[in-house]
């Protein structure tokens, strides 16, 4: 499947590395664990949204937009990467931020991604938790059009068929790299939230008829609910790229066992995962997404989900800027 026909703006350092994790593999007694370093996409501390934004910004520029509008939680990594993309291409950036967490602290409100959003020049508007976010973003778009501007609205997490192209591309990259390195990928494990990352991966691996399983680890809702949400994006994404064969619903797999109390709320598994990744591999995960996804991978490996000779690729989706917002949880005794 060729992605060359879609408008694309260069933002990411690609390909990102695919690295073996020998010490984590040994600590868990297998399977063979690899990490796809999508935390190294390079834009303002990187992360998975940069791949999606290459196609979203490509479309925005093709339409002559002068302002990017998007939305997210206060510590959204997507918002930070969108603000950086807008800055790099000289567009204005308007952000609607949802105060989604009921219990926060000064670090969460002011440090991490929010500090970087401000440095990157985005205009931030806050709305209460539970606000209908897309209508709120559309209202900002109307306001900007009213002033003669040309807004382009990016949905939460950049998750629509255009954004998902970035993860079709990533799936192709993983197949190419693992082939060059001489191993076959059995399962890809990835944090799944707004769904675009997993949907793009599923379409990419299925289009290539690779047989690779994509296991999403949920960060905000139960597995069956997340699977439906991901599948709802798989279908239009497959249509958008003109995939000839249908993708079976069973190819969308999400495990809701590691969410804990909810989105952005720390779990002991997440804290252990951050600790193991850091101390065994020098790898920094994040508290909201990749940490919970790695908690899932660690637990499932311990429970014997994979044979020791199988290969599992963990997609590091980034988010390390969020570590600084969680210092009160992660920093230990003073
Ligand atoms: C957004 C995000 C995800 C989840 O990707 P979705 O496409 O929203 O499902 C995973 N990890 C990090 C660090 C993210 O910022």
Topology overview:
Blueprint (H helix, E strand, L loop, with lengths): L17 E3 L1 H7 L3 E5 L12 H14 L4 E7 L3 H12 L3 E8 L6 H5 L2 H7 L3 E6 L4 H14 L4 E3 L7 H21 L5 E6 L3 H12 L5 E6 L4 H18 L12 E3 L12 H14 L8 H13 L8 E5 L11 H4 L4
Parallel strand pairs: 2-10, 3-4, 3-6, 4-5, 7-8, 7-10, 8-9
Antiparallel strand pairs: 1-2
Helix pairs in contact: 1-10, 2-3, 2-7, 3-5, 7-8, 7-9, 8-9, 10-11
The structure holds pyridoxal-5'-phosphate.
Describe this structure in words.
Strands 1-2-10-7-8-9 form a six-stranded mixed sheet. Strands 5-4-3-6 form a four-stranded parallel sheet. The chain has 334 residues and is α/β, with parallel strands linked by helices. The model has no long low-confidence stretch (mean pLDDT 97). Helix content is 42%, strand content 16%. The chain is globular. Helix 8 links the parallel strand 7 (187-192) and strand 8 (213-218). The chain starts with 17 loop residues before the first strand and ends with a helix. The structure holds pyridoxal-5'-phosphate.
